[in-house]
Amino acid sequence: MIKLHGKYFKPFISAKEIDDTLQRLVDEIAEDVGDEIPVFIGILNGSFMLTSDFVKKYPKTCEVTFIKLASYEGLKSSEDIQRLIGLTQDLTGRTVIILEDIIDTGKTLHEVHRIFKNEKVKSLKIATLFYKPEAYKKDFKLHYVGIEIPNKFIVGYGLDYDGLGRDLPEVYQIKETQHMTNLVLFGPPGAGKGTQAEFLKEKYNLVHISTGDVFRYNIKNETALGTLAKSFMDKGQLVPDQVTIDMLNAEVEKNADANGFIFDGFPRTNAQAEALDKLMDSKDSQINAMIALEVDDEVLVKRLLERGKTSGRKDDADETVIRNRIKVYYNETAILKDYYAAQNKYFGVDGVGSIEDITVRLSTVIENL
Ligand code: IMP
Ligand code: MG
């Protein structure tokens, strides 16, 4: 992973793959051009590296020149294309092949065609190393296409992000989500999970996703997913993991700018943990840690009975019920503890002490991730 102007980019296309693609383009073009001496025109700045590597591979005599157009600003293709250096030689009767690093909306290509409108070339063909079909809005023919890529910003091999990254020998793609800290928070009933989640949320600007809350929200608002979930619950069946994951996905997307998430109440099984990993992966992110508050059973029982006296929660009043809830918790988390421990992501935190003390312990874990 690399960072340019504060944004993260992940490896996308290797130098080897670029080299193989160039060779393929060279072979196709050399075959089509035959014995003519073609003029290759690189479009600066982006195609300087590609043009150089391309003509070194070209097996026969050729000419090389450049025109310089400017269109991009930061991460977005801008409206007007500036012609900084135009054609500097007569191309009448010549076989011309444009070498583009990337074709995105096609605005630059439109300008290229405008430049050639009054030139009496023998033929004008377009070759591009990268092509974003989803972004392309013109219908000029692309004669030679290297690699089709999704409509996401890339850097490297001539392509820049605000001036940086052109020198990289390989290509990187912008990360869907920038750097995040994603936690799965566990704690037996009475461990103070809610209190600590509130605090972590504030301190690290994380979004707290409590599965219970998400369910209640979707059902209350009769969202498509809520209605679907309810149809299973009404039949007394478990809501399929995919429905829950889809709800979590919606929450994650709603908060795409967050520094990260605290997942609470999910996952509960290995399959769910895997599904959550897949979800985070699809956002170019990951779960960084499972943090479990550890509190001795007897302390929990005492705390909950104490809370039951004032909270009015029925399940906090009966010692047998409390002990059973704690047992269920340990049965469930044991599996997940193994799952995350296997990836070195399990962190048990002593949950006995003052709220502030526990907070300090949690912060230490997070800041060392
Ligand atoms: P178009 O005019 O929208 O087709 O964009 C073409 C030009 O925009 C290219 O020559 C690049 O200079 C720039 N460009 C398009 N997509 C990207 C990208 O993903 N990264 C960096 N530059 C890009
Ligand atoms: Mg370009």
Characterize the structure shown.
By secondary structure, this protein is α/β, with parallel strands linked by helices. It has two domains: 2-174, Rossmann fold (3-Layer(aba) Sandwich); 181-367, Rossmann fold (3-Layer(aba) Sandwich). 41% of the residues lie in helices and 24% in strands. It has eleven helices and 15 strands. The strands form three sheets. A six-stranded mixed sheet has the order 5-4-3-6-7-8, with helices on both faces. Strands 12-13-11-14-15 form a five-stranded parallel sheet, with helices on both faces. A four-stranded antiparallel sheet has the order 1-2-10-9. Strand 6, helix 3 (107-116) and strand 7 (123-131) form a beta-alpha-beta unit. Helix 1 (15-33) crosses helix 2, helix 4 crosses helix 11 (355-367) and helix 9 (297-311) packs across helix 10. The two termini are 17 Å apart. The structure holds inosinic acid and magnesium ion. Inosinic acid is lined by residues 43, 46, 71-72, 77, 101-109, 153-155, 159.
In short:
The protein has 369 residues and is of the alpha/beta class. 41% of the residues lie in helices and 24% in strands.
